[in-house]
Write the structure tokens for this entry.
Amino acid sequence: MIRFFKRKPSNHPDFWKKYEALFQVKPPEYVGDNRFVILDTEATGFDFKKDRVLCIGAVSLQSNVIDISEVFEIYIEQEKFNPETVKIHGIIKNDKVKTFTEEEALVQFLDYIGNSVLVAHHANFDITMINQMLKRLRLPKLKNRVLDTMTLYRATRINSNLIDRDKNYSLDQVAENLNISVKDRHTAAGDAMITAIAFLKILTKLNKKEKGKLKDLFRVR
């Protein structure tokens, strides 16, 4: 006897269902036709389980243009603050900024990113921290494909015969080598903007700025 099993309806909230439904559409083939969201997080530390995201900053890029009118920045309510990391990002407990719960922040963040390709420098940290936020709400991980500007930048160095296949380049090093101003360094939105400019310059060096195929960027190692 053949039995047909119906998939159980999702009990996830509507904002997640709306986000998830966007991935039924296949992304455009070429780099220049895709929307990218370049993001950065500031956190209380580097422990994925114990530490928390304080702020998410992001900018969007499409048709090789950074949309500065659509900068995303959101601060998240937290009771935990690490004096050592505060020295870096400057976010302190009594800052006069509007803060949101993790769920409120994620609702806005998912609405902003949609099914765009995500880009970050040392992306594993930012994406894992956001996925931990989702996990605390009993939601799945982000569905977006992710590019790391560190990996992409290293590929440009290899193409220039300055070969160091194991070197990890900091955002400061990338910015210096690509002549990018770092005056807004160590704010989430500022670092996202620096990363976005770096991403555009890296695409040019990789000859992927317009008619390069998106799938080729994910093959860069």
